[in-house]
Amino acid sequence: MKTVLTNKNISIRTRRRALECYIEPILMYGCEAWTISKQTQKKLEATEMWFLRRMLRISWTAKKTNDTVLEEAHTTRLLISKIRKRQATFFGHVMRREKLENLVTTGMLEGKRSRGKQREKLIEGLTDWLKAGKSLEAIEATKNRKKWRTMIANAVKQGT
What we know:
Blueprint: H1 2-5, H2 12-27, H3 38-56, H4 66-73, H5 79-97, H6 100-106, H7 122-130, H8 135-143, H9 145-158
């Protein structure tokens, strides 16, 4: 794919669509179950910028900011919002089923908690992204599919 993505005879729009079609699905495989920390988010954003720089043949030593690279590519950062949207749709699906997956996803399993700092849960990251307030509000919103879809659409529009 390197020859196609770096070919200057092909428009940037076509190369971007090839990237979205062939490379991003491999990158985002299984992202519905990821918990995205600040560090992971930075790495994903860096990967997205690396792809764009390679497509535009901009050397890593060139002193171009990420904003100028995004302007040249006529795009914005979309990878994190795509991953969050996938996570939110998957979370809504799991919460409506009310099976074992529901318990695992919410982290409401019986037993003792492990020592040390507790791991970040998927629901915590989603409630921050959706700006839903508390996680219980997000869980209740999943019961109403129409309300859940509008919450996801509003979060995607805000682009956070």
